Each structure stands twice: as C-alpha cells, then as structure tokens.
Amino acid sequence: MALKRLSIKTQAKQELIDITERVQRAVRELGVSAGACVIFVPHTTAAITINEHADPSVKEDILMMLDKLVPAGLRYQHAEGNAHAHIRASLLGHSVTVPIEDGKLALGTWQGIFFCECDGPRQREVWITLI
Ligand code: ZN
C-alpha cells in the first residue's frame, strides 16, 4: 500500500480547490499503472468531492447552496462556533475513490477532484492511498 500526503494552504473561510492535477502527479510519482486511488481528508471541517471543473461557476453554486442548506449562526450546541462547518464537511464526505488506468486517474470528461474548505483559512492535508 502506497501513501502520499499533500499539503494545502486554504485562503478563504469556505472554498473549493481543484486538486486534480496534484493527485494525478502523486499517482504518477507512486508509479502504479492500475488499481484505485483513495483520496482522504483527515479533518472534521474539510471534505473532498468530485464534480465539474470545466465551468468554475459550478463550484460557486455548490458553495452557495451549502450556505443555504447549512447556515452559520443557528442555535447549534457545538461550543466552538463552527458547527455549520462540521455539518457541511459530513454532507460532502471525507473520501473519494477513483480508478487508475494506464497510470492515470480514470475520471469522466468533466470531472475534477475538489478539496472543500468549510472553516478556513487553515493548513490542511490530503492523504492519497493507492490500492
Ligand atoms: Zn468545531
């Protein structure tokens, strides 16, 4: 089992960062030609998702709807004040799995891998495991 860790410095309170190329580079460096790649986020207020990366307005729409679905400032019990970020991260999920074919991520034509910051800016990590 091969593991690679990526560091990500997020810049905003909430943002989606396209990490497709970085994950592809890590897969290449690990030298695996076929299998699957698990991309895991070891945080409770950040997440990972796959969606369209051809049109940047898609990620803006996702962020807008997360704001509406799970607003900040409700009467949450979590004393740290970032319950909305924990809930958004859980809705998006903490890992995705992508097949690897001929040493490349086998993604659909319009798909990209997005790191989802829900309570930034922070120093973050993404762990990539090849299986
Ligand atoms: Zn918290």
How would you characterize the overall build of this protein?
There is one protein chain. With 131 residues, this protein is of the alpha+beta class. The chain has a single domain (2-130), classed as YjbQ-like (Jelly Rolls). The chain has 3 helices and 8 strands, in the order ββαββααββββ. The chain has helices at residues 20-30, 57-69, 83-92, and strands at residues 2-9, 15-18, 35-40, 46-52, 95-101, 104-105, 111-117, 123-130. Strands 1-8-3-5-6 form a 5-stranded antiparallel sheet, with helices on one face. Strands 2-7-4 form a 3-stranded antiparallel sheet, sandwiched between helices. β5 and β6 (104-105) form a beta hairpin. The longest helix has 13 residues, at 57-69. It is globular. The model has no long low-confidence stretch (mean pLDDT 96). The structure holds zinc ion (ZN). Residues 78, 80, 82, 86 line the site of zinc ion.
